[in-house]
Structure formats: C-alpha cells, structure tokens
C-alpha cells in the first residue's frame, strides 16, 4: 500500500509517499521562512500555493507507481494554509481516482512516533509552535490528559525572541544561548495536569529590560518551560500506569527537553522514543503514515465533506485502527512512587511522604519547588481539616528532607471505586475549600482522592494556592474531570454529580465558568 501525504498546517509545505510494503518514506519539504517576526497566515498561504505543487510533483517523480490513498493534514493549523492544502488534496484525489483521508496533525505527531518506535501504548508529549498536549489513548480516542491553558510552547518562546529582534524560529537560538547561560528564576505555572506559558515570555522580557544577560534569561526560560512539560508528562505516567513515552512536535527537537524527558522516564523505569528530527518537525511523512492506518481502517472523506478544521482537537478523532490496551495498577507495597513523591508506610497507620529530588530539573528550581510545595501542603491540610474537609493529619514535617509524616486515610483511591456519590462529595469538598478557605487544591485528580466506606478524603495539596478568582476555582473542577477521562467511558454523569455537590455548598456560577474553560480554543 502506498499513500501520498500532504502537510501544510503552518510553515511546512511538505509531501511524502509512504510504502507500507517497504516501510519506506520519501519526504520533500519547502519551509516558509518569514523575513522578520512571526508567521503571517496570508503570507504562509501564498507560500503553500506556490510550494505545494512543486513538492508534490517532486515526490511523485522520485517515487513513481500507483497511489492507493491521498492523506492531508486537515487541522489544527492556520486556516488560509489549511484551505490551500485541502484544495491540493481534493484535486489529486479526483485526478488519481484515490480515496481521500483527513488526518489530525497532532494525532499524526503521536502516531508516527508510535509507529517508528514500535510502541505499545505510550503517553505522548506533543510540543510544537501553537500547541502543547499530553495525550493518552483510552476507549477509542486520544484523551488530552494535560495541555497549555493559553499559548503554545513554541509560540511562547517565539514571542520572547521576537522581542529581541531574532528571526523565526526562535527555539534553536534560545537553545544555543541557553548553553552559555546560568539559570535565573521565572514563573513556574503547573495546575494539575495543565500548564501555562503566557506570563513566561513577559517575565523573560522584563529580566532583559533589567539588564540580566540574555544567555541567563534563555537558560531560565528553557529550564522552566521544559521542566513544566516533563512534570506533567510524569504525572500522566503515574495516573495511567503506563511505561512508555513518545515525543512529537518541532520543539521536541530541543536537546535539553529530550534530556529531561529521558531522565524522568529512566527514573520511573519507563522507556522513551524520540523520532528522528525530520519526523519531529512538521512533515508530510507523519501524515502519510497515519493516513495509511486510517485508509486501512476505511476512514475516508468524501470530497464534498473534506473541509479543513483549524481547531481540530485530537480527542475529536475516532482511533479505529488501534485495539484497546489494559493497564493494571501496580501491586501495592510498603513504598509507593507517585509523580513527585515517595510514600512509605510506617507502623501505627502512618505514612512518610517525601518529595524526591528530580534530577531533570535545575537544582535551584528543584529545591525551590520541593520546599514550597511541602510547606504549602502542610498548611492547606491543616486549614482544610478545620473547615470540615476530611484530610490526613500532619504529624511531623522535615523541611530539610522535604518530607512529612501523615496519618493514612481511606482504603483505596477514588479511581478504584468510582461512583456518582463519591464524586458529589468531591464537589462539596472543593466548594468548601474555595468558599471558606479561599484556596484551590491545584491537583484534584482521581489519584488524589481517597475513599473508605464512610468518607471521601482529599490528599496531596502541594499544588494548591490562595485565590478568589472564579477561573481558578473552575480549573479545579476541570482538572478533576480531565483525570476521569482515563478511568471512565461515560463522563457526563460524573460531571453532573460533581456540579451537584459543588452547588449544594456554593452559589457562584461555577458551571458557566467550567463550560467556558472546556470550550476554550487553545490553538493560538
């Protein structure tokens, strides 16, 4: 089977032919290079109009032979570029009398790595210009376990480099300067499984204005951004019991990010596959390979239904070419390793929780995070209990070792005993925390709720913070619902139960704010 793939979502006018019999991929790419600043959609579309016919003709001439299907990047991406790409694909499908396949660009980033690395069921980290996703497969779709709350990772870096007057793309230039710099602190914003880059660029610009060496700012920017991505990827591994990671996206070419992800995975006993650079950046090879899977599964588009989708979410794609895997939880022992802490069972119904050092993070950043989260958790546990929220009791705290001794609570995690009743109680607990204490939990996943026959406990408050912002309160609910996606196939009843519990305590318009967050486009 031979599939022609066409990529044209933003800057790469690319065509490729994948021959499944030979496992070979022929790729031709003509990149758009803006003279200054970022990518202008109309200019990029003009480039696609002239470059795509040439790269398509070249790859067809290189390869020869009959084409079985035409696959094209349907989205997400820049609308003007996508329309040119779709038009070219339709014309070829008609001319060659071949079926048309519309491929999600972000799914293709993950699928090409899974294919090339011969992986079973990895967690995928997509780090590209306009996007940043952590994805996991469940119930026939790639679920977004975590993502940027605002701008894409590459765009955040490019915003800073445009301020410096550097040409696009800015990532490689930041990487070169960072190698000569020293770490400086920048905002580190992780909220549960999500992360935020919007304030980082502005903070980095401010440091430059204050006279901090550009090399040091680049080092701090890189260390901060990539540590955030690695932390959330590790949390996804712990949440889903997976032991494979695959990288995708142009930003994933960065050697420091690759180093961080590899160190994190090795410490957890997980494996990492990093595709060759030509398959990390935008390319038609990944479109052709994913298109081949889709074509084999009969996922075809009629020409008159082949509209492009600029905000095409990865979870909107039915993954009909994969079987559903199973991941059994690990056998519980006296010592358990979570995403950021090691839990040791002590005598007398006590636990010792120690935030282990993360070798992938810069030592200064790592020490700051571990100390800050340990102090914050102890304070929030105490205040929550005073307001009637069931939590562990802090018996001792060791700030030198970033450790606490706590009472053990609950007989099992919520994920192992999910019901509408327990979820409703979670909603009540979160509303009490928001209204009465003025804090958010920050990471209320199904692993951070413990259950027994009588009570529902909240644990692990290290990502909590003080706020009276309705957006932050709704994010707590959003994080919890995100974590349910890898546990249940029917999310809506639990969403109803969560809101029922919340509104029994609070009359703030939390449902409206949650709807706004869930419907927010993240492709900027």
Tag the structure with descriptive keywords.
5-stranded mixed β-sheet; alpha+beta; 524 residues; Phosphorylase Kinase, domain 1; 15 helices; 19% strand
Question: Summarize this, please?
Answer:
The protein is of the alpha+beta class. The chain contains 15 helices and 22 strands.
Commentary on this structure:
The protein is of the alpha+beta class and 524 residues long. Strand 14 (341-346) and strand 15 (350-355) form a beta hairpin. It is built from 15 helices and 22 strands. It is globular and about 75 Å long. The strands form 6 sheets. It has a 5-stranded mixed sheet, sandwiched between helices. Strands 8-7-6-11-12 form a 5-stranded mixed sheet, with helices on both faces. The chain folds into 4 domains: 2-113 and 280-310, Nucleotidyltransferase, domain 5, CATH 3.30.420; 118-274, Nucleotidyltransferase, domain 5 (2-Layer Sandwich), CATH 3.30.420.40; 335-407, Phosphorylase Kinase, domain 1 (2-Layer Sandwich); 412-518, Transferase(Phosphotransferase), domain 1 (Orthogonal Bundle), CATH 1.10.510.10. It has helices spanning 41-63, 79-96, 105-116, 153-163, 171-178, 198-209, 214-240, 255-268, 277-280, 284-296, 363-386, 420-437, 470-484, 492-503, 510-518; strands spanning 2-7, 12-19, 24-31, 69-75, 100-104, 123-127, 132-138, 141-147, 190-191, 194-195, 244-248, 271-273, 335-337, 341-346, 350-355, 394-398, 403-407, 412-413, 439-440, 449-451, 456-458, 465-466.
Helix content: 40-55%
Globular, elongated, flat, extended or rod-shaped: what is the shape? globular
* Beta strands, count: 22
Provide the domain count. Answer: 4
Quaternary structure of the protein:
single chain
DSSP strand content: 15-25%
Q: Which CATH class of the largest domain is shown? A: Alpha Beta
**Which strand order does the major sheet show?**
3-2-1-4-5
Whole-angstrom Rg = 24 Å
Structural class: alpha+beta
The main pleated sheet reads as: 5 strands, mixed
Give me the number of helical elements: 15
| Name given to the CATH architecture of the largest domain | 2-Layer Sandwich
Which stretches are poorly predicted, pLDDT < 50 over at least 5 residues?
none
CATH fold topology of the largest domain: Nucleotidyltransferase, domain 5
The termini sit apart by 36 Å
Arithmetic mean pLDDT: 92
- The CATH superfamily of the largest domain is known as ATPase, nucleotide binding domain
